[in-house]
Each structure stands twice: as C-alpha cells, then as structure tokens.
Amino acid sequence: MSELNPWKVAQKQFDEAAEVMGLEPDLREVLREPKRELTVHFPVKMDDGTIKVFTGHRVQHNQARGPSKGGIRYAPDVTLDEVKALAMWMTWKTAVVNIPYGGAKGGVRCNPKEMSQAELERLTRRFATEISILIGPEKDIPAPDVNTNPQVMAWIMDTISMHKGYSVPGVVTGKPLEIGGSKGRNVATSLGGQYVVREAVKRVGLQLPGAKVVIQGFGNAGMYSAQFMVEDGATVIAVSDSKGGIYNPKGLNIDEVIKVKQETGSVINYKDADRVSNKELLEIPNDILVPAALENQITEENADRIQTKIILELANGPTTPEADKILWDKGVLILPDILANAGGVTVSYFEWVQDIYSFFWEEDEIRRQLERIMQQAYYSVMEKVDSLKVNPRIAAYILAIDRVARATKIRGIYP
User: Fold this and answer.
1) Which of 3, 70, 238, 248 gives 20 to 30 Å between its CA and that of 409?
2) What is the distance between the alpha carbons of residues 149 and 131, in angstroms, rounded to a whole number?
C-alpha cells in the first residue's frame, strides 16, 4: 500500500474534517495548500573527489499561529508530495497540543547508509545553506527525522551560526545537550504517547497492569514505548523491526530484546520467542497495538483482522482513512498520530523556549509540563469525539483545524 500518495491522504483527511465542521470554502482553500515550497538541487563533493548533485525540499505549510516546525529526513525515496503531507500533519499536530507553531518539513533524496560521516556533513552543511533563506528561530525550526540525528542538527546550527556571525542555538531542536539541546528529548515521543494511553485505557475499561501490548517498529519510539509499557505493568508480547518480528504470548524480556537489538542489529535474534512477519505481527490478538514504524501499515486490506482495543499511533500516518472507518465501527479506539506522537514536537518546543531564554530545565520539569500538555490535548480531542460523534482522528483534525482557521481569520489576508 506504500504507493498511496501521502499528500492525497493528508488532503483527504483535511477535507473530511472540514466537511464535518462546516469550514467556510475560503478557509478550506487557504488551509489545504502549503504556504511555501522550496526545492533545491545542490552539489556535494564526495570522498572520491567526484561531485554529486542532490535534491532537497523544505515546505512550510502554515505559519498563522507562529513559526513553522518540522523535521528533516534523509532517504532515497523522499518526494515533494511526502514532504508536503508531513508539513501539513505538523500544522495539525502543533495545533492539537496547542503550542504556538505551524507546520513544516524537509527532506533530501539520498542514501545516508551508503555515505561516510564526512560526506553527510558536507551534504548537511550545503543543504542548510540552501534553505537558510527560510529557516531561523523566529521563522522555521527544523528537527531530526528519519535518518537524521542530533549530530546533523549540530551541523545545521553551526552552519547557520557561521552565516550570522554568532551562535543561533534556537534555529533547530533535537540538538546535543552541549550546544543547547533539552533533557528528555530522546524519550519525548514515546513518553507523550504513554501519558495519552494512561488516560485512554480508562475509556475502554482497560488497565495498563496486565494489558497485552504489540509494538511494530523498534527504533527510538518503539523501544522507549516498550520500556514505558513495562514500567506501567503491561506485558509486551510482540515487537518488530525492518527485518521481522518476535512473539511470545507470555511476554518478552524487553531489556534483553534491547540488548539483542543493540548487539546484533535486529530483534529477530532474540531467542525466547517465535518469529513473525511485520504483517502477521499486526494481527496478533492484543489490548494495545503500537504502530511505531512507517506510514500505511494498517489498511482496508488488513483492518478487519486486527484484534485490539486501542491503537497508539507513534508512527506518522500508519492507518489509512479507509482502515479508520473499519476499526472505528469495530469499536477500536485509535489514538491518532497528530495526538499520540506529539510529545516529540512538544519537547522540541520546550527546547526552543530554553534556547531563547538561555535558561535550562531539569528532566522532571520537562516531564511535568509534557504530561500536562498531553493530558489536556487528549481530553480536548475526546470532548469533540463525544459532542460530534466522530472518530478520534476526525475529532483531532477538527480541534486542530479550528485553531488554525481562527488564527488565519483573525490575522486576515494581507494585503
């Protein structure tokens, strides 16, 4: 199903919510398109002395509520449509948790796994220079995404600082602590999701102690989610990564799984479990299913066979609009990505605030503020679910679109 165009999916989700809320045609026209798209083609000197030209994008979807915010990904299949969709989703995500940002996203078409550290640094610095006309603490703030990390953010921050002639730590988030990063950023996406699921279990008459959890994807988000689930007394019965999955109905030893993943590169080398494919993993009966891998994993084709009470979307766009309807009719509570994984951008916001003030918080303060914001967002979404009788994704969209539409209306159209 990966041939689904993510931009068409994002627009379809927007249109459905706009229809339900009766959004005026003028505002629909404005909000369903990005504000700004920049595509750059730039040369990079490779280690063997040859020059290679790479293509990159930076898309700003909306800035009505503040500067735009969103990650930069490095991948061989990056497309402008994918970046546009991710930028739009960021607009709604920041609005759902009510932080003063709009949405943006960036990407470079490359295969970082085939590049040296020196090549990646040259590519990053050149790309940062090309998009420097758009980014800045008061304009657009990038962050890590697929195949980018704190080191990549450090190179971008240094490049922009060199252009300015002084340090600009607030130009990116997800930086190393030594140059203005925030404590708690590495676990933020998973911890934010955990704060949401702690409230959501009450709604379906479930308790976390004893709940059976299945997690697809064992990168940062999936791994920390597994740890938080176990800390809360749940039993993680299956996990997977890109090479495949493992399943033990009695539960996995998560510390051991993490160790195996770090030592061998994949969870499939964990001994005390049966091997399953990523596809089969989604259909294992459980209480909480956590898609933490790629988009379009839960589709019209497999939604009927999914047996769970709650889906906690730590990945972006893991469920298609058609699958949403099937699952909602079956009584599954979907905690949509723009709510469930917004912990990452929320702690990025905290990092930006700390950089602006040059005053840094301890991790317990980060967690306290994150819990407050995620709980408020969860209950605001559920209020819309109950009052409008819609599924949580449409409810989250309506909440977000309403906030962005109000800001757009109040600001007016210039000139």
Assistant:
1) 70
2) 18
Same domain, 161 and 290: no
258 lies in some domain: yes
Residue 360 placed within a domain:
no
Structural tokens at position 349: 């916001």
The string over 85-97, giving b where at least 16 C-beta atoms fall within 10 Å of a residue's C-beta and e elsewhere, is: bbbbbbbbbbbbb
Q: 82 and 386 in contact (C-beta within 8 Å)?
A: no
* Residue 254, domain CATH: 3.40.50.720
pLDDT tens string 403-414: 999 999 999 999
Let me know whether 194 and 91 are in one domain.
no
By three-state DSSP, how is residue 368 classified? helix
Q: Which of 184, 138, 227 is nearest to 343 (CA)?
A: 184
| Catalytic position from the list 69, 84, 93, 105 | 105
Q: What is the CATH number of the domain that holds 121?
A: 3.40.50.10860
Is the per-residue pLDDT at 1 higher than 50? no
Question: Over 60: is that where the pLDDT of 2 sits?
Answer: no
**Tens digits of residue pLDDT in 89-133:** 999 999 999 999 999 999 999 999 999 999 999 999 999 999 999
Three-class SS state of 140: strand
Q: Is 164 annotated as catalytic?
A: no
Q: Which domain holds residue 128?
A: 35-175
**Torsion, Cα of 47, 50, 51, 54 (10° steps):** -60
What does the pLDDT read at residue 3? Answer: 67
**Whole-prediction pTM:** 0.94
Give the separation between CA 387 and CA 90, rounded to whole angstroms.
25
